[in-house]
From TrEMBL:
<dbReference type="GO" id="GO:0006508">
    <property type="term" value="P:proteolysis"/>
</dbReference>
<comment type="similarity">
    <text>Belongs to the peptidase S10 family.</text>
</comment>
<dbReference type="InterPro" id="IPR001563">
    <property type="entry name" value="Peptidase_S10"/>
</dbReference>
<dbReference type="GO" id="GO:0016747">
    <property type="term" value="F:acyltransferase activity, transferring groups other than amino-acyl groups"/>
</dbReference>
<feature type="signal peptide">
    <location>
        <begin position="1"/>
        <end position="33"/>
    </location>
</feature>
<keyword id="KW-0732">Signal</keyword>
<dbReference type="InterPro" id="IPR029058">
    <property type="entry name" value="AB_hydrolase_fold"/>
</dbReference>
<dbReference type="Pfam" id="PF00450">
    <property type="entry name" value="Peptidase_S10"/>
</dbReference>
<dbReference type="GO" id="GO:0019748">
    <property type="term" value="P:secondary metabolic process"/>
</dbReference>
<protein>
    <recommendedName>
        <fullName>Serine carboxypeptidase-like 18</fullName>
    </recommendedName>
</protein>
<dbReference type="GO" id="GO:0004185">
    <property type="term" value="F:serine-type carboxypeptidase activity"/>
</dbReference>
Length: 354
């Protein structure tokens, strides 16, 4: 979906310095200030207001999807939504979680996927700004070679600056109740963004945001807590035996995240636990575990174990996997007609002799 991340290191070959240049080709209907999208391939004429565009933050060109509330946009709350990863496009949140569309996965004959209205969309009662962040995620890119590298703190600051610039350019949304939300790895980023907003409010920075709160879903928070909780979860759902759980708890002293390499009993217990759960889909243990291998309809490989499924576009209901739905996003978002409709810039990378 996005341009491949270039290396940040300089390259020398045969005494010549090789420099990475980014050549940005912008389609005629793309605009730096955002454009209203009235039609999307696979959906047709939109029955909701969608704006897409880029906001410049330093060397970063951050891509966004903005969907205005389908209820009362003058009073409904305003959300900034970030998806985790890190590095997962906000299109994931838009199409699989809270946006007004979903893929018609049950009636897919091949080719460009069809989109349907999603009746449980949050956009029915809220305006939501979906951001591709950090740079290099989705359709966001950098105009310099050094600009591709990022960190949690850098991404949070860029996201805050993006939000400020976007709201200044769209002042009618400034008075609305503001919430910052996200899922997965955004459990790290969202609070950092909110901290920047709170600091700006305390410093009386104008314009003042009407921040009301933030939310995170299935968030990454603390890796030690997350890792330790997985062992407890596995025991509570009877994925591991009482004996194995007690052995791990005693030998690891309840800490499974930062294990002393010399503690062989703990490592042995954790290895046995990993073996017990290795064939389970960790996001939902009641669903089959699938491998994201290829979206090409001609490539399907099936084994006796669900963990050996090779991802393909769905054809048979009994072979259903959640990743089939994700394959449709890969096909749809990489289609040239879709990118043209979304006003996506075509970013080409060239490595040339200087």
């Amino acid at each position: 979906m996005a341009a491949k991340r270039p290396s940040n290191s300089s390259m020398f070959h045969g005494g010549l310095f090789l420099r990475l240049l980014l050549v940005v080709l912008v389609s005629a209907n793309a605009a730096s200030a955002g454009s209203i999208v009235e039609y999307l391939p696979g959906y047709g004429k939109l029955d909701f207001k969608l704006e897409t565009g880029y906001v410049s933050v330093g060397d970063s060109e951050l891509f966004y999807y903005f969907i205005e509330s389908q209820g009362n946009p003058t009073t409904d709350p305003f959300f900034l939504w970030l998806t985790g990863g890190p590095g997962c496009s906000s299109f994931n949140g838009l199409i699989y979680e809270i946006g007004p569309m979903e893929f018609d996965i049950h009636n897919y004959p091949g080719g460009l996927p069809r989109l349907l209205p999603y009746k449980y969309a949050w956009t029915r009662t809220a305006s939501i700004l979906f951001l591709d962040a950090p740079v290099g995620t989705g359709f966001s890119y950098s105009t310099s070679a050094d600009g591709w590298s990022s960190s949690d703190t850098d991404s949070a600051l860029e996201t805050y600056k993006f939000l400020r610039k976007w709201l200044i350019d769209h002042p009618k949304y400034l008075p609305l109740q503001l919430y910052v939300g996200g899922d997965s790895y955004s459990g790290i980023i969202v609070p950092l963004v909110v901290k920047h907003i709170v600091d700006a409010i305390d410093d009386h920075t104008v314009p003042r945001f009407n921040l009301q709160g933030y939310l995170v879903g299935s968030p990454t928070t603390d890796e030690t807590i997350n890792t330790n909780a997985k062992v407890v979860f596995a025991h509570r759902l009877a994925l591991i035996s009482d004996e194995l759980y007690e052995a791990a708890k005693e030998s690891c002293n309840g800490n499974y995240a930062d294990v002393d390499p010399s503690n062989t009993k703990c490592l042995s217990s954790l290895g046995a636990i990993d073996h017990c759960v290795k064939d389970l889909f960790r996001n939902d243990i009641l669903e089959p575990k699938c491998v994201f291998e290829s979206p090409e309809p001609s490539r399907r490989s099936l084994d006796e174990k669900s963990g050996d499924f090779i991802l393909n576009t769905p054809r048979l209901e009994e072979y259903w996997c959640r990743n089939f739905n994700y394959a449709l996003a890969y096909i749809w978002a990489n289609d040239e007609s879709v990118q043209e409709a979304l006003n996506v810039r075509v970013v080409c990378e060239y490595l040339i002799n200087s």
